[in-house]
From TrEMBL, chain A:
CDD domains: GT_MraY. The gene is mraY. Its cofactor is Mg(2+). Its EC number is 2.7.8.13. Pathway: Cell wall biogenesis; peptidoglycan biosynthesis. It comes from Candidatus Colwellbacteria bacterium RIFCSPLOWO2_02_FULL_44_20b. GO terms for biological process: cell division; cell wall organization; peptidoglycan biosynthetic process; regulation of cell shape. Belongs to the glycosyltransferase 4 family. MraY subfamily. Mg(2+) binds at residues 219, 279. Its main location: membrane. This is Phospho-N-acetylmuramoyl-pentapeptide-transferase.
Automatic annotation (TrEMBL), chain B:
It comes from Candidatus Colwellbacteria bacterium RIFCSPHIGHO2_12_FULL_44_17. This is Uncharacterized protein.
Length: 371, 244
């Protein structure tokens, strides 16, 4: 009971701090013009989307800062807090820089594969030609990765983002593999008799992939007012319940702190949003969701805890494959929430239904977790 | 005696001539993928079917807050062109062949643009996008008929040395079987505001003469030129080709 009581207390404190800080953060974002630009929203064209021009972005900072502040001051444990908070802050910083560059940055000149190829042949200097020959394979990879990006040429590029997320995943894998102890290497499976599955070093690339995928999945889902926030609440809610059963107070309090901050954030993010999460929040919290699930040894149920995020991610992957492989459009637009928007569903309806679906998936995940 | 393309092919042509957008009938404009993009949506490469073009146009209109129902057909055509929607000559014919011959046969047509085995393999997944005029009229897929007087619906007329192609839609013969006229259909970038999917006619005036010596009837209001006919005169490999 003590663990539940303590978590609820932290949830309330975190929410209270969030509610107090939200108006201040909004004013700061407005003052420094960290707001959604009209020309970006014009691409989507819907009247509702155009109306979002001028809304402050980087509202996710609220959750990141409140969580980090409370954890560092009141819930710090060398073994369990360093990596979740560190990796979250690293990813949030990456997202924050991207947000700022997207608003204030200039369009970056990215050399195409054709140009690099030509330069490798015609550049006047031998070293120049050699250099372009060396970077040609990277230009090709960049060209393919560009397919996954939505705003090529501005902000942090997809390949740069993926590389930095890879580092975040690597840090998590290192922590789990070398610092947390041998029991963490055993991947938990539901209904397993021997406590889990030992996949050895294969766990390292899996963790890296999971961290990268989850961060980007949350980022993709952050396209409608309240969607990412509400869905994250249910995801971390599932983790909180699991941490109660596991009896890990540090994780329980950390999950509760995130939920409290998310409640305050989502209160202000409900349509019409007073601010939007931005990459700072979505990448940071997406990474944290993955790290916490990994740390609580529940990797298998991560697709249920972040059900909507993964559905959104796969809708983008399927759309890219269909579009570039077969020349066809499977959804009217990806991520999936845009498909329903174009189908004529009101934003509130999509968000509410996605919340419900995620809630049900989380319930299933928690149930599995008890077996 | 009139011979026409099969009804399902005629239906496709009618659909291209009467795209249903904003409750109006619009002739599909011409669009060619000059950027040489290989991947991407088929419909954005100038190779879409009528329904794909309509669906994409409606989607883009929603994106851009364009009320198609408030626009005149000419403006809708402009909107389509600006959005990169339309059909090129080979894409138009390939889409007709798809309903005439079936997808399996069209997939079996040789793609001649690539030497790489991988590219040729990948092209099998996207036959419509990869069948150019050169591929359609290549000796692996079709042969030039010896006598133009033997032409029949479904034959292709190659012009501009393989930069453009027309499809014979209808032939008229007298009771003794002599060819009187050919009606063709094509998607062309010529003829200014009247570009896109359009018909032309060849009236046989010298049955014993060459194809070039017949009366080609197609022009636009503005230029009064028959650019299709000029294309026929441009090159040596031009002529009528029949799929093998």
């Amino acid at each position: 009971m003590a663990i539940i009581s303590q978590s609820i207390l932290f949830l309330l404190i975190s929410a209270l701090l969030g509610f107090l800080c939200a108006p201040v953060l909004r004013q700061v974002l407005i003052k420094y013009r960290v707001v959604r630009e009209a020309k970006i929203e014009d691409k989507l064209g819907h009247e509702t989307r155009i109306n979002k021009a001028g809304t402050p972005v980087m509202g996710g900072l609220l959750v990141i800062l409140v969580t980090a502040f409370i954890t560092v001051l009141f819930n710090w444990d060398r073994s369990f807090s360093w990596v979740p908070i560190g990796v979250m802050l690293f990813s949030a910083a990456l997202g924050g820089v991207d947000d700022l560059l997207n608003i204030f940055g200039r369009k970056r000149r990215i050399r195409s594969v054709t140009l690099v190829k030509t330069l490798s042949k015609v550049h006047k200097g031998l070293w120049g030609r050699l250099w372009y020959k060396i970077v040609l394979p990277f230009a090709r990879i960049r060209g393919y990765l560009k397919l996954l990006g939505s705003n090529p040429g501005k902000g942090i590029q997809v390949h740069e983002k993926l590389f930095l997320q890879f580092l975040a995943g690597l840090a998590t894998a290192w922590w789990l593999f070398f610092k947390l102890g041998p029991q963490w290497k055993l991947v938990w499976l539901p209904f397993s008799q021997n406590g889990g599955l030992d996949i050895g070093w294969l766990l390292i690339p899996i963790i890296i992939l999971i961290v990268m995928a989850t961060a980007n999945a949350v980022n993709l889902a952050d396209g409608l007012d309240g969607l990412a926030g509400g869905t994250l609440i249910s995801g971390f809610g599932g983790l909180l319940i699991i941490s109660w059963f596991q009896g890990n107070t540090v994780f329980a309090v950390l999950n509760a702190t995130v939920i409290g901050a998310l409640l305050a954030y989502t209160y202000f993010n409900i349509k019409p949003a007073r601010f939007q999460m931005g990459d700072v929040g979505s990448l940071g919290l997406g990474t944290l969701l993955a790290v916490m699930t990994i740390a609580q040894n529940r990797i298998i149920i991560l697709p249920l805890l972040g059900f909507i995020f993964f559905v959104e991610l796969f809708s983008v992957i399927i759309q890219v494959i269909a579009r570039h492989g077969f020349g066809k459009r499977l959804f009217l637009m990806a991520p999936l929430h845009h498909h329903f928007e174009l189908k004529g569903w009101p934003e509130e309806k999509i968000v509410a239904r996605f919340w419900i679906l995620n809630g049900l998936a989380v319930a299933l995940g928690v149930w599995l977790s008890l077996h | 005696m009139t011979k026409k393309l099969p009804q399902q092919a005629l239906d496709v042509i009618e659909r291209y001539k009467n795209l249903n957008l904003g409750g109006k009938k619009v002739v599909c404009p011409y669009f060619i993928n000059t950027a040489g993009v290989r991947a991407g949506l088929k419909v954005m490469l100038g190779k879409g079917s009528p329904s794909e073009i309509e669906e994409e146009a409606i989607l883009i209109a929603k994106h851009d807050n364009v009320a198609l129902e408030d626009l005149e057909p000419a403006h809708i055509r402009e909107f389509l062109k600006k959005s990169g929607l339309g059909i090129d000559c080979s894409g138009f014919i390939t889409n007709i062949l798809l309903v005439m011959l079936g997808e399996k046969k069209v997939k079996n047509l040789a793609v001649t643009a690539y030497t790489s085995i991988i590219r040729r393999f990948l092209a099998k997944f996207r036959p419509v996008e990869n069948l150019s005029v050169q591929a359609l009229t290549n000796s692996k897929n079709s042969s030039k008929i010896d006598r133009w007087q033997d032409s029949m619906p479904g034959d292709m007329i190659k012009t501009r040395s393989g930069k453009h192609v027309l499809l014979i839609e209808e032939t008229e013969r007298n009771s003794s079987g002599e060819l009187l006229a050919i009606t063709y259909i094509h998607s062309t970038n010529a003829y200014g505001n009247e570009s896109g999917v359009r018909n032309g006619k060849v009236i046989v005036v010298r049955p014993a003469g060459t194809l070039e010596e017949q009366n080609w009837q197609e022009s636009d209001e503005a230029s009064r030129r028959n650019i299709t006919y000029e294309g026929l005169l441009d090159g040596e490999t031009n002529g009528i080709y029949r799929l093998l």
